[in-house]
Amino acid sequence: MPELPEVETVRRSLIKHLIGRTIEEVEVFLPKIIRYMEVAQFQESLKNQQFLAIERRGKYLLAHLSKGWTLVVHLGMTGRLYYLPVDKGQPLSSTSLPLTPSSLPLTKGSEAPRHVHAILSLDNGGSLVYHDYRQFGYLTLSRTNETMCLKGLKELGPEPLEDKFSLPVLQRGVQGRKAKIKQLLLDQRLVAGIGNIYADEILFTAGLHPERSGGSLTDAELKKLYRSIRYVLQKGIEFRGTSINDYVDGEGHPGEFQHHLQVYQRTGQACTRCSSVIQRVKVGGRSSHFCPQCQTEPAKI
DNA sequence: AATTGTACCTGTCAGC
DNA sequence: TGCTGACAGGTACAAT
């Protein structure tokens, strides 16, 4: 689920609820979702710390805390991180969490609902809930000045929406590469934050077939790809992410970008641009959706 | 070094 | 009404 636009939306929606709050209690119901450290140490180190800032790097959320610690969250495929106001009993909006009926209501002392793996209780009576039915996501804690040394974070390429990600940077990452462009877009070392949905949408917008090799792209195509990366990710953020099965933001609200998808999960439907039938192929083990008319064929050599 | 397959999980849906 | 297999937003690691 959570690619750059979803993680960014979670970040923005959590800020107003968390900044200035202090963590009073930490419950962990599934120890394995705490990575790289002992659960007891995770719990102890979080206690009595205040949220100072929330940052995003690629698909990682970084909550900077007082005393020089940073809470690192990766949502994997199905992770949700959301704020529940006051005493766990009252969801922020009972209609806004249609996808988590099993996680509500939370009552003190009761066993955690299925798929709720951790709860941080805050000094205002609210809580920060981590929910993840496939359990691919994780939480960890690091010293703030060492966060970028963590596995996964230290290999990340540039942020696609920042100036550091320029056309020459993309060119250098792609030119001379034999790998298919779809796989290159998913490579977090090349550029951070693109996942399967946005990769397909970016390639459609750029008019590029997912199986084109990186090295086969012309300068004009690279320029179009560069602009498409920025355009599609920005649109994803504007529409607050893509909710297909279970993504919700930090307040439990689904996004709207699923209504604007051009190819992802539209196999067999008509292309919005030319009415050709959208096709699906496997590229590097991932489903890739494309329009055979609008996205130029790979070179047949 | 780069690439491929597999593992980690639960849930849904189509087909028999 | 089951059962089985394919598939689902992501990464990490072993084998080639």
What does this entry show, briefly?
With 301 residues, this protein is of the alpha+beta class. It contains six helices and ten strands. It has two domains: 146 residues, N-terminal domain of MutM-like DNA repair proteins; 124 residues, Helicase, Ruva Protein, domain 3 (Orthogonal Bundle), CATH 1.10.8.
Query: What ranges have pLDDT less than 50 throughout 5 or more consecutive residues?
Result: 90-109
Structural class: alpha+beta
Helix content: 10-25%
Mean pLDDT: 91
CATH fold node name of the largest domain: N-terminal domain of MutM-like DNA repair proteins
Number of strands: 10
Cα radius of gyration in angstroms: 20 Å
The CATH superfamily of the largest domain is identified as MutM-like, N-terminal
Element order, helices and strands? HEHEEEEEEEHHHHEE
- Name the overall outline: elongated
Distance between the termini: 35 Å
Strand fraction equals: 15-25%
CATH architecture of the largest domain: Alpha-Beta Barrel
| SS element count, helices | 6
Sheet with the most strands: spatial strand order: 1-6-7-5
For the largest beta-sheet, the strand count, sense and barrel status come to: 4 strands, antiparallel
By CATH reckoning, the class of the largest domain would read Alpha Beta
How many structural domains can be distinguished in the coordinates?
A: 2
Q: Could you walk me through the main structural features you see in this protein, from its secondary elements to its overall organization?
A:
There is one protein chain. The chain has 301 residues and is an alpha+beta fold. The chain has two domains: 4-149, MutM-like, N-terminal (N-terminal domain of MutM-like DNA repair proteins, Alpha-Beta Barrel); 167-290, Helicase, Ruva Protein, domain 3, CATH 1.10.8. It is 23% helix and 20% strand. It contains six helices and ten strands. The strands form three sheets. Strands 1-6-7-5 form a four-stranded antiparallel beta sheet, with helices on one face. A hairpin with a 3-residue loop joins strand 3 and strand 4. Helix 1 (4-18) runs parallel beside helix 6 (219-238) and helix 5 packs across helix 6. The structure holds a DNA duplex (16 and 16 nucleotides).
